[in-house]
TrEMBL record:
It comes from the Eukaryota. This is RCC1 domain-containing protein 1 isoform X5. Signal peptide: none annotated. Gene3D superfamilies: Regulator of chromosome condensation 1/beta-lactamase-inhibitor protein II (2.130.10.30). InterPro entries: RCC1/BLIP-II, RCC1_domain-containing, Reg_chr_condens. RCC repeats lie at residues 212-263, 321-374. Residues 150-169 are annotated as: Disordered. Pfam families: RCC1. The gene is RCCD1.
Length: 378
């Protein structure tokens, strides 16, 4: 009988506001450390990091992770994350503090914290709530909207699990709108855009539709939209350079974007290849704009299945369960035990040395969180 393999979240990078991030010593953690979310014995099942605080969603443990090797399909990877049925607790760590029960998803930004929460009252549906991060989740939210049952049912039919994880925030259940940290908070999407995932960068947005096509819009002054120019796009525009190559994942960073297909990894904007200098204001040693998507090769012919972008760094999980990071590394957010920036993808040896298999990754602007399980021994 296969041994049960529980997973854990690991964190590294900036923790200058006291964010739960490994040991949390000083302002940074330069090598992966087990995540310690204070005040809860429940299992952390998702992480959303902003610059000065992090939101953790935790639920009670309710059974083993399926035995056997990790799935290779990006959508099936979600089944390896701890996601027992029912709502859990959102806990804030860092410059924002507080906790709330009855939550199913959370998305953090500096100006807004959005939670998908069980409705108030018998028979009530789920409710989307937008809070000021400094509110400690007390009092009344800035904005609230009931999620119609039809939207929840559509998500359950189109994705795995209970529907709240197949299309994570900021994309709203039903995939007809998303939440923005800037006014207006509620932003409808055109009916013809059948969104599967939506990612918000600092100035731009990426949308992945049901057919695997990618749309981008927002600020484009760093080439992060991938349309070959540095112009802004007010509305979602199809990324024509990737037509005919269905994508499985998208990730939006501060100034760059990354897309994952079944056959490779591509990116556009500065920081995709090459370091981007010092975010503290010092001149960059090299800022290379990449306004068209460029194919990115991982070492050893590795295939990427998951990706996440920070402000100026990128992290990907491979089909073999390895983690590669590159970009700006001033606060240890690359996880290599130092604060050196790296021009090209470099494997994080911690997980190899500890016989851990990376399953999911979530980048904050200046830090990185990774979910990993123990590798099976032959």
């Amino acid at each position: 009988m296969a041994e049960e393999r529980r997973g854990s979240w690991f964190g590294f990078g900036f923790c200058g506001f006291g964010q739960a991030l490994g040991s949390g010593r000083g302002r940074q953690v330069t090598s992966p450390e087990p995540l310690r979310a204070a005040g809860t014995d429940a299992e952390v099942c998702s992480v959303s990091a902003s610059w000065s605080y992090t939101a953790f969603l935790s639920r009670e443990r309710s059974g083993p992770i399926p035995p056997g090797p990790a799935p290779t399909c990006p959508r099936l990877l979600l089944s390896w994350l701890p996601a027992p049925a029912g709502a859990g607790q959102v806990q804030l760590s860092g410059s924002a503090r507080g906790a709330a029960e009855g939550c199913r998803d959370a998305w953090a930004s500096e100006t807004l914290l959005v939670v998908l929460r069980d409705g108030r009252g018998p028979g009530a549906g789920a409710e989307l709530q937008a809070w000021a991060p400094g509110s400690a989740l007390c009092g009344e939210p800035l904005w609230a909207q009931t999620v119609v049952p039809e939207a929840q049912r559509e998500d359950r039919e189109d994705g795995e699990g209970d529907g709240t994880r197949a299309r994570p925030l900021p994309l709203l259940p039903g995939a007809r709108a998303y939440v923005s940290p800037l006014s207006p908070l509620y932003r409808p999407l055109a009916p013809e855009l059948r969104a599967r995932r939506l990612e918000l960068g600092t100035e731009h947005a990426l949308l992945l539709d049901e057919a695997g096509q990618v749309y981008s819009w927002g600020g484009g002054r760093h080439g992060q939209l991938g349309h070959g120019t540095l112009e802004a796009e007010p509305e979602p525009r199809l990324l024509e350079a990737l037509q005919g190559l269905p994508m499985a994942e998208v990730a939006a960073g501060g100034w760059h974007s990354v897309c994952v297909s079944a056959t490779g990894l591509s990116g556009h904007g500065p920081g995709v290849t090459g370091t981007t200098g010092d975010e503290g204001g010092a001149p960059a040693s090299c800022i290379a704009l990449q306004p068209f998507p460029a194919l990115l090769d991982l070492p050893l012919g590795s295939d990427a299945v998951k990706a996440s972008c920070g402000s100026r760094h990128t992290a990907v999980v491979t089909r073999a369960g390895e983690l590669y990071t590159w970009g700006w590394g001033k606060y240890g957010q690359l996880g290599h035990g130092d604060t050196t920036s790296r021009d090209w993808p470099c494997r994080v040896e911690y997980f190899v040395d500890k016989q851990l298999q990376a399953v999911a990754v979530s980048c904050g602007p200046w830090n990185t969180y990774v979910y990993a399980v123990q590798r099976e021994t032959s």
